[in-house]
């Protein structure tokens, strides 16, 4: 064997050769290839490994350990790993400067596939006895833990046979660890270890090893690139403390002690730990602690806690702990009853007086208990119903606020009952009393009252409770609320709808014949549009309910194809479109509306130019929603059947075409129709005076050119159309510019080669005396996203591409930009991703400042939005241009034609205050003076923004501000 350093001694090479590690990489490659045996390599290193100088031995061991770390896991045979294990065991007695390299080598060996049996015990015994873990530096302790736990995972049986000495060694190694990253590693891995290996008599000692960290008090380093959070440490520590039921037993006294802490975070950790313990421990192990636990929990809840976010979080965590405690006790009914009696007795005073401040908290305690189990739910409901009804049924007047609270409490009990499906377990007499009261509320209270809302929600939760004769009372109330919805609060309407849907599932035939029949036969001709929309939307949801589809679809189709009331037809079509698009059921569009009810066929039969554009537009959207649900083959057949007969010069046919083509799959061929379609659409868009028709034509052109096959024929169609449009531009036709922009939009989105030429054409028009303004607006079309516009081909980064094209075209004219150029650029910049703008801010920044100096509101608003983002980020560009920016913002703070601009400018001035004080002081007086005027603005939101901004500028340069700045 010939090593790279054989021309000199290994010791000399280690001391002098600067490239020794590179040579070791070659050795690693040779070992992997089988050219070098690892035993020979160790032998070659012998003089260094046995040298009298500890530093030389350390370097020699480092070389060997580095080679082992670079080797793949299957590179060594079992006998070779055995040899290396023996070597490192011997090295564990070496000088402490060699120990880090020894640990690195052993850790590398633990990953070897052919790690021999018996070696794990020998290695760990040597380390436990000779290398105290906590005497090492942080990196070495990390290796120690990794090696130890890797072996614990791989050699379970072998280490279990070793017994208590292994567990004792592990405890000794991890005890007293302080590094947060090492602790997180241990907290993540040790629960599995504790569950795998018997703890013998060391269970409490293992628990105490982790208990000393509880609760976690940790403040992460803000400069840590991979920061560790306190919450992560706390969560994984709790898993260690509750790794087994045996450990969880020790955790209960610990958490009860920490619940007495004055620190909210300590209490939150204790409550979290309690919930974990309750999941593991049998009730017999916890029963003795019930009194103490409930006393500690009650202390956090009664009297009512504070209002800060942390205090609210603590209250919610306490309720969760109460629920977990009740759930744990439920496995033994006597224990559960004793606990529930105890909690009920504690909160009885609050529950018997709904006007007291303690009522809500007391009720929530009982509801938390009820959520523990079916047994708890039945117990709590049967105890609380009489208390609540007694306060509602008193002789004399019950204050409205109190009655609202009590009926709401009944509703929440019903929700718990529904959650556990426990209505059959409740006392029928009690159930009857509650049912009677709820029906009484529904009958007697005003439709918009809070009590009626709560009663309807209660009945919605448990519709089985309502007797047959009383169900008709509920049905009448729901119908009345829905048919007078414009007079009702939204919460009442929501409750009525929820109740209706709940009863619809339980009592299908009754709801069909009573409620729905009244709703669908009601005369909506004179009803307010908002009311019709709400009722139709409610009815639309029934289409997706089992057993209601035929009745509902028939109703909507009767309205859609009713020639006498176009308004109702439009609302019906909008409702059906919404159901098809958001109903999560493709079968509705395909199998039902398309095949069974022949919806599209009926639309094509009834569509004519006598219908309004609004009606035809709604029909097109409905057709598009159904077509979108069809398989590709069905779409293809539909196009072959319907498209050739359409004459796009007729308004109705145009809308039908837009419905057919709007969401057509890109694989459906349109070769035979493409040229005629784009010719007719462009001609119609140029000639018509109907704005709605032009918009339909333009969007269809955009979608068609986006999906256009990229072949010679279609490129020829595009070139001929562009030639015709350019001829129209010579005639100063504004609509030609718009058409060009829509075609460009479709091509840009797919990354077509012609798109750049179209952008150039529109950019050239910005200087045109009559077309300049419309060309600027064309860039808005090119830039922004439009709802209901289907672009099947979208290329990545197409917005960035548009930005590059436009800037390249216009960047040479920064000083000569006219208003139209700036307006166009504002639209493009608004659509460009922020990171791209940031990368090009040296070019973009001056443009934005010029935009802020314009008079056009849209231009200013788009630019101001971008500048605000950069100011919020404290970008250096803004800092360098404060002398220009601040006067512009002050001028915009009194810009009368737009409240949004005034608020945006004031917000921007507020963030400017974050820049260094010495930069702001020269502007302070002029800003304070100028901000007096917005203080008297006619809009309250502007005045609020002005107060906040002026106050911040007022403290610029104060002692506290200067100190903070430094």
Q: Layout of SSEs?
A:
Blueprint: H1 10-16, H2 20-33, H3 38-49, H4 54-70, H5 78-91, H6 99-109, H7 119-130, H8 138-154, H9 156-162, H10 164-174, H11 180-196, H12 203-211, H13 230-241, H14 245-258, H15 264-280, H16 283-286, H17 290-301, H18 309-329, H19 333-351, H20 359-370, H21 374-392, H22 400-420, H23 428-444, H24 450-461, H25 468-483, H26 490-506, H27 508-521, H28 529-541, H29 549-560, H30 566-582, H31 586-596, H32 599-606, H33 613-629, H34 632-642, H35 651-661, H36 671-687, H37 691-707, H38 712-730, H39 734-750, H40 755-764, H41 772-783, H42 798-810, H43 819-831, H44 834-839, H45 841-852, H46 857-872, H47 876-880, H48 882-892, H49 899-912, H50 917-920, H51 924-930, H52 940-954, H53 959-965
Helix pairs in contact: 2-4, 3-4, 4-6, 5-6, 5-7, 6-8, 7-10, 8-11, 11-13, 12-14, 13-15, 14-15, 15-18, 17-18, 17-19, 18-19, 18-20, 19-20, 19-21, 20-21, 21-22, 21-23, 22-24, 23-24, 24-26, 25-26, 25-27, 26-27, 28-30, 29-30, 30-33, 31-33, 33-35, 35-37, 36-37, 37-39, 38-39, 39-40, 39-41, 40-42, ...
Describe the structure.
By secondary structure, this protein is mainly alpha-helical. It has a domain at about 845-960: Leucine-rich Repeat Variant (Alpha Horseshoe). About 70% of the residues lie in helices and about 0% in strands. It has 53 helices and no strands. Helix 18 (about 310-330) runs antiparallel to helix 19, helix 18 (about 310-330) crosses helix 20 (about 360-370) and helix 19 (about 335-350) packs parallel to helix 21. The radius of gyration is 39 Å and the shape is globular. The model is unreliable at about 960-965 (pLDDT under 50).
């Amino acid at each position: 064997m010939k090593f790279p350093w054989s021309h000199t001694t290994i010791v000399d090479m280690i001391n002098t050769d600067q490239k020794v590690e590179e040579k070791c990489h070659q050795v690693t490659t040779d070992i992997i290839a089988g050219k070098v045996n690892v035993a020979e390599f160790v032998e070659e290193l012998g003089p260094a490994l046995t040298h009298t100088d500890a530093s030389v031995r350390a370097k020699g061991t480092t070389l060997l350990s580095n080679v082992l770390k670079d080797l793949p896991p299957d590179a060594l045979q079992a006998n070779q790993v055995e040899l290396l294990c023996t070597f490192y065991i011997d090295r564990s007695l070496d000088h402490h400067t060699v120990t880090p390299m020894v640990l690195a080598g052993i850790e590398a060996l633990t990953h070897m596939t052919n790690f021999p049996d018996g070696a794990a015990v020998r290695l760990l015994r040597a380390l436990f006895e000779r290398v105290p873990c906590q005497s090492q530096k942080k990196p070495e302790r990390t290796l120690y833990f990794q090696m130890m736990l890797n072996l614990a995972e791989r050699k379970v049986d072998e280490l279990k046979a070793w017994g208590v000495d292994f567990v004792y060694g592990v405890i000794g190694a991890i005890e007293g660890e302080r590094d947060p990253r090492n602790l997180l590693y241990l907290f993540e891995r040790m629960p599995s270890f504790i569950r795998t290996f018997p703890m013998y008599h060391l269970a409490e000692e293992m628990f105490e090893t982790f208990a000393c960290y509880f609760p976690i008090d940790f403040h992460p380093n803000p400069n840590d690139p991979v920061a560790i959070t306190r919450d992560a440490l706390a969560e994984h520590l709790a898993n260690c403390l509750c790794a087994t039921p045996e450990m969880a037993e020790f955790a209960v006294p610990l958490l009860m002690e920490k619940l007495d802490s004055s620190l909210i975070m300590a209490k939150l950790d204790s409550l979290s730990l309690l919930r974990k313990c309750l999941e593991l421990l049998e009730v017999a192990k916890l029963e003795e602690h019930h009194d103490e636990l409930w006393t500690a929990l009650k202390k956090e809840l009664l009297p009512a806690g504070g209002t800060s976010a942390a205090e609210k979080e603590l209250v919610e965590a306490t309720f969760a702990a109460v629920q977990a405690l009740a759930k744990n006790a439920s496995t033994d009914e006597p224990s559960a009853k004793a606990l529930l009696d105890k909690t009920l007795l504690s909160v009885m005073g609050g529950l018997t007086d709904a006007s007291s401040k303690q009522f809500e908290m007391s009720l929530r305690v009982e509801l938390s208990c009820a959520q523990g189990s079916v047994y708890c739910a039945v117990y709590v409901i049967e105890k609380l119903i009489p208390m609540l009804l007694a306060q509602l049924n008193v002789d004399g007047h019950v204050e409205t606020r109190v009655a609202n609270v009590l009926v709401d409490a009944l509703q929440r009990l019903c929700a718990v009952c529904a959650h556990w499906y426990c209505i059959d377990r409740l006392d029928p007499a009690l159930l009857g009393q509650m049912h009677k009261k709820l029906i009484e509320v529904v009958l007697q209270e005003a439709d918009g009252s809070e009590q009626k809302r709560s009663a309807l929600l209660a009945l919605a939760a448990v519709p089985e409770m309502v007797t047959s004769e009383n169900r008709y009372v509920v049905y009448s109330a729901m119908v009345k609320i829905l048919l007078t919805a414009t007079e009702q609060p939204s919460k009442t309407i929501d409750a009525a709808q929820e109740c209706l849907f709940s009863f619809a599932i339980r009592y299908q035939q009754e709801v069909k014949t009573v409620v729905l029949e009244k709703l669908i036969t009601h005369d909506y001709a004179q009803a307010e549009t908002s009311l019709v929309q709400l009722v139709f939307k409610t009815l639309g949801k029934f289409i997706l309910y089992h057993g209601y589809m035929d009745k509902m679809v028939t109703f909507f189709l009767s309205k859609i194809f009713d020639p006498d009331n176009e308004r109702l037809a439009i609302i019906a079509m909008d409702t059906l479109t919404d159901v098809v698009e958001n109903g999560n059921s493709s079968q509705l569009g395909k199998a039902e509306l398309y095949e069974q009810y022949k919806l599209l066929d009926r639309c094509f039969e009834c569509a004519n130019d006598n219908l309004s554009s609004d009606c035809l537009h709604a029909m097109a959207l409905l057709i598009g929603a159904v077509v979108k649900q069809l398989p590709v083959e069905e779409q293809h057949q539909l196009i072959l059947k319907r498209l050739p007969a359409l004459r796009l010069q007729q308004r109705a046919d145009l809308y039908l075409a837009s419905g057919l083509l709007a969401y057509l799959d890109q694989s459906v061929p349109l070769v035979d129709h493409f040229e005629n379609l784009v010719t007719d659409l462009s001609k119609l868009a140029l000639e018509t005076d109907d704005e709605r028709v032009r918009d339909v034509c333009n969007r269809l052109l955009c979608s068609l050119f986006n999906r256009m096959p990229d072949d010679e024929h279609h490129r020829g169609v595009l070139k001929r159309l562009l030639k015709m449009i350019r001829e129209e531009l010579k005639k100063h036709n504004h609509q030609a510019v718009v058409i060009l922009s829509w075609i460009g939009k479709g091509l840009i989105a797919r990354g077509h080669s012609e798109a750049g030429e179209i952008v150039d054409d529109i950019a050239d028009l910005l200087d045109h005396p009559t077309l300049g303004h419309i060309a600027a607006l064309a860039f808005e079309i090119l830039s922004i996203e439009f709802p209901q516009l289907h672009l099947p081909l979208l290329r990545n980064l197409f917005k960035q591409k548009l930005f590059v094209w436009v800037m390249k075209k216009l960047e040479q004219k920064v000083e000569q930009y006219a208003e139209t150029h700036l307006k166009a650029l504002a639209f493009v910049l608004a659509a460009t991703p922020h990171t791209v703008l940031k990368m090009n801010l040296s070019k973009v920044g001056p443009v934005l400042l010029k935009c802020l100096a314009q008079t056009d509101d849209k231009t200013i608003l788009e630019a101001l939005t971008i500048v605000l983002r950069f100011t919020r980020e404290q970008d250096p560009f803004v800092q360098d241009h404060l002398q220009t920016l601040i006067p512009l913002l002050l001028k915009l703070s009194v810009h009368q034609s737009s409240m949004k601009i005034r608020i945006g400018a004031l917000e921007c001035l507020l963030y400017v205050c974050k820049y260094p004080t010495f930069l702001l002081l020269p502007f302070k007086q002029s800003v304070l003076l100028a901000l007096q005027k917005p203080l008297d603005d006619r809009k309250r939101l502007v005045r609020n923004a002005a107060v906040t901004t002026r106050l911040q500028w007022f403290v610029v340069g104060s002692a506290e501000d200067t100190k903070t700045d430094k």
